Amino acid sequence: MIKSTITELFKIKYPIIQGGMVWVSGYKLAAAVSNAGGLGLIGSGSMYPDMFREHVQKCKKATNKPFGVNIPMIYPNIEELINIIIEENVKIVFTSAGNPKLYTKRLKEHGIIVVHVVSSLKFALKAEEAGVDAIVAEGFEAGGHNGREESTTFTLIPLIQSKIKIPLIAAGGIATGRGMLAAMVLGADGVQVGSRFAASIESSAHENFKNKVVETREGETMLTLKEIAPVRMIKNEFYQELVAYAKSHSVEELKEFLGRRRLKKGMFEGDLKNGMLEIGQIAGMIKNVESAEAIINDMIEEYNVIRSSPLF
Questions:
Q1: Same domain, 222 and 175
Q2: What is the largest CA-CA distance in the chain?
Q3: φ and ψ at residue 303, rounded to 5 degrees
Q4: Is the pTM of this model over 0.85?
Q5: What is the band of 37 on the pLDDT scale with cuts at 50, 70, 90?
Q6: What is the domain extent for residue 30?
């Protein structure tokens, strides 16, 4: 066990949170992470309400440990998801991609722990003011959507930690025990891991995508789409097509171009050529597809070895 304000807040063994990623974080992954001592999150962003309820119910049966859900505030059916969370008595909610004031008060009135994901000090302070229980500070190394400022995780953590009074979780570029320890030395109370769990056995991503992540090397991901919402992806054929298209088309045309199920096509259906492949820079350090339990055990073992070295 590693004690921190995060393990106390969530009642978990280790301060490791699995990112709630679209097309990747179904109940199998969330339950596996929770059973291994971390906090698993169901990623609701790629689920219709009925499917989301089904995953919550299945996760309850698959683990007796705490788990949570991640909800992007830009989700079109967010009101339905909030109702399901309350009806199903979900205890932990991570909100992202929007204003935390919208639902924090309502969720907390039902005894739900609320965490908000930010990419800057400005939004961290707004989230704290909104009454959230903890903050995830995500650097631009991360996969998926992140900040336009391109602030790195190791810049954000000490900057935000010095200005807030609530627990802080580091995210972006963390996939090892060494990275976890470094983030906590800088002031984080825990870490959120996305990319390494995206390539895990229990991940609902397509095997083609998982294998592509393992093959990805340094410099083969890029932050793009700043015109709409910055996102980091692997530089495949679709990425090249996207960059060329964005140079000569309007934002509205770009949104329409992206609306062709590109993310599902790449990550869930395994079309490595025509699909969007979101992943973080840390993909270059992911060497194989492992179980969630093996990932957590490996991180904790490395963390403890370094923590007990003469350096500390």
A1: no
A2: 57
A3: -60, -50
A4: yes
A5: very high
A6: 5-204+287-307
Angle, in degrees to the nearest 10, between helices 177-185 and 292-307: 50
- Write the CA distances from 35 to 114, 195, 220, 296, integer angstroms: 21, 19, 33, 10
In a domain, 269, yes or no: yes
Residue 252's pLDDT is: 82
Q: Model confidence over 144-191: pLDDT tens digits?
A: 767 777 889 999 999 999 999 999 999 999 999 999 999 999 999 999
CATH number, domain at 112?
Answer: 3.20.20.70
Q: What is the pLDDT of residues 217-260, one digit of tens each?
A: 999 998 887 767 778 889 999 989 888 888 888 888 787 777 66
Summarised one tens digit per residue, pLDDT across range 48-57 is 999 999 999 9
